[in-house]
Design goal:
By secondary structure, the chain is α/β, with parallel strands linked by helices. Among the domains are: 411-463; 477-608, no CATH class; 613-822, Rossmann fold (3-Layer(aba) Sandwich), CATH 3.40.50.1460. Helices cover 61% and strands 8% of the residues. The strands form 4 sheets. It has a 6-stranded mixed β-sheet with strand order 7-6-8-12-15-16, sandwiched between helices. Strands 3-2-1-4-5 form a 5-stranded mixed β-sheet. The chain has a 3-stranded antiparallel β-sheet with strand order 9-10-11. InterPro entries: CHAT_dom, TPR-like_helical_dom_sf, TPR_rpt.
């Protein structure tokens, strides 16, 4: 009867209200008084109606009130993505209609705080950081220390989640200094600090803080469990955990919190080598997240939703599983849920930060498939392993690349155009945030703009997914083989894991997988070899050391398996991104003459790429091949590039070009003209960046930073970065180096020539002159890059010292192994002649056959 009364009141009660504003409040308060699935359904219906009716600010505020309470219920019932969407809509409504001017509604407490926490829980770390900093700024502005401290607590939680434990501790120490901090808040800060110290393996400090702080008994037990877990004392950790867990079970907790308890207990049982107990707890965790799931074992994909606790469950399931196929099924479920979570992420920073776990999981899948292949010799397993490797290659770069291709297919689709414009605007605002000298208000405004763009992108993504449900990043082994056959190329892709380096070799008729144990010795060999290029003297001071190391790396990375191929496409990974494979040695040698050394480049053309997707799919290019050159020269400065003038002259002699010299080589002219030319040549200084500044490239007046390149849209056929360190930047697993070169790739450039380290001005000029002499004839950067290095080594006027690989192997070409124009023309002539000869031969045979047939027929008639 009570339930019936409630429904009647809910449905009809608001009909007696005086106006829409009051109606909305009545509906909201009725829901708050009796929250359940049925009342939520009714609330959703009314909310939809209200959205079409509200006009005044008072009505908008009433709707914000309704939405924040609805979102809180969704949060409490573990419907995290729905909660985020509802909070975002409420926040957008509150800001757009400037509702703070008419009310003291606490948007921080009711919206921003829970939204920031939800972003953290769902791995949307960029939006979490923006949102938390946004309400810290508002709290400081209104001098609300309570919200300031809450902001510090949630910021510390975010840094802890990101594994930035030292930053978390600094945030906490700064928060201690704030006035009017409550006991509860101080205890909360102590707890996060204790957990951060444990994560940093500072158990003694953590134990001391745990003992001295007036934590509740169950909190002390939780910290003790974590300390014992860190120390490897699993039996004691389990004892403390059970005490902590039993206390938690006495309270009313969400299904998500309950699942977390079961997962943690399962992890302990796994460490104690009690797999059955671990599996039992994992099944309980699944049921906590899926109350209607009554079966044992793994649920179907259609029952899953974006929740990272599912990933923890399936990953541990896979670790326990002894059947390889079942283990792969578990990991595939983890990848599936990871994909659901990624659908809500809009910033590339968030996607990159979340890539680590996918990489670890991929390596385990490749391990399983490699071991299965050794037993079965089933080549299909190798391609599946290749897919796991490729799925975690340059994920962000691939995503924007495929969006661009999609837009080129449907250039008039307003949804796709709007999405691409928003992505560029997002990167533009991000580039403004990295600049120095911004005050807190400016940072907050930019953050607010980013949040608004993120919300729009999510809305567009949903609409685009409905309109274009197909997945455009699929590739097949057959497609790879066909393209490799056309390009007369072999592909080698490396996967640089935690325990192994995997080498995939794909030719037009085969696929091979090699596993290279990543032990201390090979790690040291790789880093030592890369360090040889730190300065020009390192190699020349000990040539024998270089030749030994260059041959050792050649063998260790199993590059000798490719010795029979003339054209090699390399997709490197991890530290291998910084290895110049052209400079490796195919054989041992005692010579100290660089021109006589058996370098890889002497009989193999090398091209690099970030992903097979970028290789197989081609972006539309400009029709012209005119060069737009930027030569700041920096005369009369310590950074003068005197020889770049000769470089410019050499290019003008062989290419149709427009050279912007000295004061004309400005960032403004670059932004204005770059998209109109087929080839961009930048002869300047560059920096790989540091912990504060990202990678950047110098123009005459100022620098362009990595994030600014992200906001450009270029269809340029080729970019040549005749500058130092353009391929160097902070290295992220799977995604590669955050370098200037990557910025151009993100902007849409498919073919790039860039450097891996600082290089001599004169040598650069000489190599560039040789490059363009060949490029003007071949129109293939792939061929011209190879040719320029060979000619450089053959040039007798260049001293042996300057023929060190330090000077010529710095430049690497990323892109497509295009056949030289002249070679292609000759090929078609020869092919055409062959076709004509074959036709003539067939006609001749046909004529002879006709004559013989006639003779036979005549003989038959005579007889």
């Amino acid at each position: 009867m009570k339930k019936t009364y409630f429904l009647l009141f809910f449905i009809y009660g608001f009909g007696f209200s005086q106006n829409l504003e009051e109606t909305i409040y009545v509906v909201a308060e009725t829901f708050i008084a009796n929250q359940n699935v049925t009342s939520l359904q009714l609330l959703n219906t009314k909310e939809s109606d209200f959205k079409n009716q509200v006009k005044t600010k008072d009505e908008q505020l009433a709707l914000v009130f309704l939405q924040t309470h609805k979102a809180y219920y969704l949060f409490e019932t573990s419907k995290l993505n729905e909660a985020i969407t509802t909070y975002e809509d409420a926040l957008k409504r509150f800001n757009e209609h400037e509702l703070s001017e008419i009310s003291e509604f606490d948007i921080i407490e009711n919206c921003l705080k829970p939204l920031g926490n939800l972003y953290t829980k769902t791995g949307d770390f960029t939006n979490a950081l923006i949102t938390i900093n946004q309400y810290i700024f508002l709290a400081e502005k209104t001098k609300n220390t309570g919200h300031q401290i809450s902001g510090s607590i949630n910021l510390a939680k975010l840094y802890y989640t990101l594994g930035k434990h030292e930053t978390a501790i600094k945030t906490i120490d700064d928060a201690y200094k704030l006035p009017n901090i409550s006991k509860a808040q101080k205890t909360h800060l102590h707890n996060i600090k204790t957990e951060s110290l444990i994560a940093l393996n500072q158990s003694e400090k953590a134990s001391s803080l745990n003992s001295s702080t007036k934590f509740s008994t169950f909190q002390k037990e939780k910290n003790t469990y974590l300390i014992q877990l860190q120390n490897g004392n699993y039996p004691k950790a389990l004892t403390s955990f059970i005490t902590y867990k039993n206390h938690q079970l006495k309270n009313k907790i969400t299904g998500r919190a309950l699942a977390l308890l079961y997962i943690e207990e399962a992890q302990l049982y796994y460490l104690l080598k009690l797999p059955d107990d671990a599996l039992n707890n994992l099944n309980l965790a699944i049921k906590a997240l899926l109350p209607n799931f009554k079966k044992e074992g793994l649920p179907e994909k259609n029952l899953l939703y974006p929740e990272n606790k599912f990933i923890d469950i399936f990953d541990l399931y896979a670790e326990i599983e002894t059947n390889p196929e079942m283990a792969l099924q578990c990991y595939d479920l983890s990848f599936y849920v990871s994909g659901l979570l990624q659908n809500a992420w809009t910033s590339q920073e968030t996607k990159i930060l979340n890539e680590t776990n996918n990489r670890i999981r991929s390596e385990k899948c490749i391990d399983i498939l490699f071991d299965s292949y050794k037993q079965t010799k089933n080549k299909a397993l190798l391609f599946k392993a290749f897919q796991y490797s490729e799925n975690n290659k340059a994920s962000v770069l691939k995503a924007v690349f495929l969006k661009k291709i999609h837009l080129q297919r449907f250039p008039n689709d307003s949804l796709l155009v709007k999405e691409f414009d928003l992505l560029k605007e997002q990167e533009h605002i991000t580039s403004l945030l990295v600049k120095e000298g911004l005050n807190a208000s400016e940072i907050n405004d930019l953050g607010t703009q980013l949040s608004a763009i993120s919300m729009q992108l999510k809305s567009l993504k949903t609409a685009i997914s409905k309109k274009y449900p197909d997945n455009y990043d699929l590739f097949s082994l057959e497609a790879m083989k066909r393209q490799l056959l056309v390009d007369h190329t072999v592909l080698v892709e490396y996967f640089y894991g935690k325990n192994s380096i995997y080498q995939f070799i794909v030719s037009n008729n085969d696929i091979i997988l090699n596993r290279i144990p990543l032990n201390t010795s090979i790690k040291s060999d790789i880093t030592n070899f890369i360090s040889l290029f730190d300065s020009s003297s390192t190699i020349n001071n000990d040539i024998k050391n270089y030749t030994n190391q260059a041959f050792n790396i050649y063998k260790s990375l199993k590059f000798d398996a490719l010795s029979s191929y003339k054209n090699v496409l390399i997709i490197p990974d991890g530290l291998l991104n910084f290895i110049p494979f052209e400079g490796l040695l195919k054989e041992k040698t005692n010579t100290t003459s660089f021109s006589k050394m058996p370098f890889v480049i002497t009989n193999q053309k090398i091209v690099y790429n970030s992903s097979v997707i970028l290789y197989l799919n081609k972006i539309s290019k400009l029709d012209n091949n005119t060069v737009l050159g930027f030569f700041p020269v920096f005369e009369n400065t310590k950074q003068a590039l005197t020889y770049s003038i000769h470089e410019a002259d050499a290019i003008e002699n062989v290419m149709q070009s427009q050279m912007l010299m000295r004061t004309e080589a400005t960032k403004t002219n670059f932004n204005k003209n770059a998209s109109d030319y087929g080839v961009l040549h930048l002869s300047t200084h560059a920096s790989s960046g540091d912990f504060v500044k990202p990678s950047n490239l110098s123009f005459y007046d100022t620098s362009i930073f990595l994030n600014e390149l992200y906001s450009l849209d270029l269809n340029t056929n080729l970019v040549v970065l005749s500058a130092c360190e353009t391929g160097i930047g902070k290295l992220y697993k799977g995604e590669g180096a955050m370098s200037i070169a990557r910025g151009f790739q993100y902007a849409g450039v498919q073919n790039l020539l860039f450097s891996l380290w600082q290089i001599n001005d004169l040598s650069t000029s000489q190599i560039m002159q040789l490059f363009y002499q060949n490029y003007s004839e071949s129109e293939s950067a792939f061929v011209a890059n190879h040719h320029s290095k060979i000619k450089y080594l053959e040039n007798e006027s260049i001293s042996n010292i300057k023929k060190s690989p330090y000077y010529w192997s710095a430049f690497v070409f990323y892109g497509i192994p295009e056949v030289a124009k002249s070679q292609g023309f000759t090929f078609y002539i020869i092919f055409g002649i062959l076709i004509v000869l074959i036709i003539l031969l067939l006609l001749f045979k046909s004529k002879i056959y006709g004559r013989n047939a006639s003779r036979i027929s005549s003989k038959k008639r005579i007889h």
